[in-house]
Structure formats: C-alpha cells, structure tokens
Amino acid sequence: MTDQRTNHCTFCMLMPFILGIAGLTALYWYARDSKAEYIENNLSIRSNQLLKDHQIGGAVVNVDGRDATLTGIVVSVSRSQEIEQIVATLPGIRLVDNQLRISQTKIIEVAPEPEIAPEPVPKPTPEPQVVLAPEIKPEPEVLVEAVEELLKTLDLSGITFLFGSNEITLQGKLILDDVVNVLTEHTEFDAVIEGHTDNVGDDSLNFELSQQRAQAVLNYIAAAGIQTERLTATGFGETLPIADNGSAKGRALNRRIEFAVSRK
Questions:
Q1: Alpha carbons 88 and 125: distance in angstroms, whole number
Q2: CB of 74 within 8 A of CB of 83?
C-alpha cells in the first residue's frame, strides 16, 4: 500500500514536467511550420514580382520550401531559359524546376502596303528681293588725350632700369607688355618715348643715359610687334623734372619714362 502511494506521488510530480516538454515540442513544430510557410510566401511573392519588374508575362512561380517551380506558356526556348536564370538569381531560391511550355502559335508578319508618294506640287517662283546694304556707321574717333590717359593708368613709374645702365628690369618689361597691348589696339597713333633722369651726375652723361634708356624701351616694344615707323625715342636728361631733386623720393620720380602719342 505504501509503494502504491509512493509511485502515485512520483507520477504526480513528473506530470507537469512531461506536459511542459510536450508543450515545448508542439510549440517548436508550430513555429517551424509557420516560419517555413512565411519563407515560401515571401519567396513566391518576390520571384513573381521579379518577373513583373522584367516585364515578363505568361510565367508563374510556385515555391515549395526553397524550391521554385515555373509553370505557364512562353513564346520560345530562349525565353524559358531567360526566366529560369532570372528566378535562380533570387536570394533564397535553392532549385528551379522549369516546367514552362513553349507556345506552338506562329507569328505571321504582314508586310505593310507600300505608301504612294503624293505628286510634287510645283513651288511658285519667288520674286526677287531687293537687299539693302547695311548702313555702315563710322566708328567714334579716339582722342589723343584718351590714349595718353590710358597709358598713364599703367603706372609707368614702374618702368625701371638697373642702376647706371639702360637694361630694363623684369618689372619694367611687364608694364611695357601692357603698353604694347594699347598700341596694338590703337594702330592709328604713333608714340614718342621720352627718357628722363635726376640731377645726380654730369649733365651730358645724364642726357646720354636718358637717350639710351628711351631707345631700349623702343627696341623692346618693336621686338614685341609694334612697327618702328610708329616709334620715336628722345632723351631729355635732367632738364624736365617733375619733383624736387633735393630728396630721394623726388629723384626717384624724376628718373622716368613717358609716352606722348599723336595721330598719324
């Protein structure tokens, strides 16, 4: 009697454990079946949408697990192979069973009827038109003062030379390039190149140096393409100062090159 009671108590204690295992097992298989069904539906929808995106009709994809079956009717073997390759590239598809049938209907192309060209309509002979020559307006005359003012804007004070010589500095050559551009644009003008010095040193040497520097400028401009017939070089030495030679600043201003232009 005591053994029967013991066995009965043991069974009562194991019953919840057995029921728990049974419940977990049932839940596992239910979740597995639900997940498999979800994967099948998802692959089926995606594969059929993929064919739709490729504008392919006549084929249907059925998915069992991860295996796809193709059914329907297509126009050619090459079309069937193309659909199979498209579905096989979809992630998640394992195998593709191609059961597509080839249509036996032949497409007969009907040649279009030849178009009859309309008879050409003779064009009326146009009346001769009188073309009036365009009125040529004279270009406005450029004043000498305007060209001289344009040259002054180039900061001619930057045309400098090495000390005691007629060799033009690099800065001076850059400014003379702008002078060349002005003279090239206004070919109706000639230019006189005037050289000036300060009062330091002998008068005759200063006059000679100013002449040499004016000639060096003429040679540079002529080498840049300006005709020598349009250019004249004149040296004035220290005779025409524009500032006081009593200061270094004044002497620097007096050592200069100026341009005087005249119409041809």
A1: 70
A2: yes
The larger pLDDT score, comparing residue 142 to residue 221, is at: 221
Packed helices 2-53 and 77-88: angle between N→C axes, nearest 10 degrees:
130
Rounded to whole angstroms, the Cα distance separating 31 from 23 reads 12
Nearest to 232 by CA among 262, 256, 204: 262
CA dihedral for 91, 92, 96, 99, sign (positive or negative): negative
Q: Which domains can be identified in the chain, with CATH numbers?
A: 18-102 (3.30.1340.30), 144-263 (3.30.1330.60)
What are the angstrom distances between the C-alpha of 247 and each of 42, 199, 253? 97, 11, 10
Above 90 in pLDDT, residue 257? yes
User: What is the rounded average pLDDT for all residues in the chain?
Assistant: 79
Residue 31 — pLDDT band, cuts 50, 70, 90? very low
User: For residue 243, with 0-12 CB atoms within 10 Å meaning exposed, 13-18 middle and 19 or more buried, which class applies?
Assistant: middle
Q: What is the pLDDT of residue 90?
A: 77
- Of 102, 63, 70, which is closest to residue 86 (Cα–Cα)? 70
* Whole-angstrom distance, CA of residue 55 vs CA of residue 166: 85
